[in-house]
Amino acid sequence: xxxxxxxxxxxxxxxxxxxxxxxxxxxxxxxxxxxxxxxxxxxxxxxxxxxxxxxxxxxxxxxxxxxxxxxxxxxxxxxxxxxxxxxxxxxxxxxxxxxxxxxxxxxxxxxxxxxxxxxxxxxxxxxxxxxxxxxxxxxxxxxxxxxxxxxxxxxxxxxxxxxxxxxxxxxxxxxxxxxxxxxxxxxxxxxxxxxxxxxxxxxxxxxxxxxxxxxxxxxxxxxxxxxxxxxxxxxxxxxxxxxxxxxxxxxxxxxxxxxxxxxxxxxxxxxxxxxxxxxxxxxxxxxxxxxxxxxxxxxxxxxxxxxxxxxxxxxxxxxxxxxxxxxxxxxxxxxxxxxxxxxxxxxxxxxxxxxxxxxxxxxxxxxxxxxxxxxxxxxxxxxx
Length: 384
Known about the structure:
Layout: H1 4-17, H2 20-26, H3 31-37, H4 58-71, H5 73-85, H6 96-101, E1 108-121, E2 124-134, E3 142-149, E4 167-170, E5 176-178, E6 192-202, E7 206-207, H7 225-254, H8 268-300, H9 307-335, H10 345-356, H11 367-374
Parallel strand pairs: 1-3
Antiparallel strand pairs: 1-2, 2-6, 3-4, 4-7, 5-6
């Protein structure tokens, strides 16, 4: 991939930033914003070239996500979710891989936890379930959901071929969206609940994430699926954190604290706050670049990633997300009373960054996984 997708993000960014309040109040990305982003292929960053994908590397994709998030957290989040969902193009069987991912306008999303019950029927599965966290699903061309295969009695019962936990793709006509997204931050992501009732899913229109072998030969077949999912969230948080620092710098040029004739930037404490925030965020993003670059070289050479490389990817993702929230909080505190107004981008950055830290792939508790492995303790590494 050339830098065309990143260039498009930079070109579109200011116009998207100007609509951040509208995006948040709308509860989901306006369709004209989606249509403006779609031609650049940002929503399908990791679709392989044989399915008309843009040939982005893991790092190039993260740069695109970070850039969109810099301008608007909700937009960056939606790009991250759809982009990482497009990783399934490497694992999905034909004809469904082409049906779902080959269209340059395709956008996929959904929630992978097995909240649906899938009953084997002639020709496929019949699925009933309800999922939370359907980020961006209202503008998706295909929506998926994690399932558990069950018998007629509703109890877990894998098929004879071993199918147990499919992530199934649903026809949009079978999906009902529920207006549940009333939150503190990332309000424009449209992360609503959604459900299906006895939806028929034809044979092979699913992927068992972490279990199915890849159907296509490319570096993503050997990279960490879960690691890149976590890093997509981290890239979003990093972009939000970078915006918070820049907004603080901009504010400090003109704001004069009450009772003072000098701008905020003349205060030594503010100078130190800006420097420390920048250093923390740059160091965290540098860790992501280093670990992703090393892992990509391994995958590009045709080798599977070692558990240590996968561990470092997850560690970098969690560290960057948590660091970005700390940076946004520091910017908010340094900005003083000006940051409490809804018109301040800094308060939005704080709220968006805090919500990002709650994603299951990068929540503080995920440090435990990386710590257990570093300490040599027996660890279940299947989620790496």
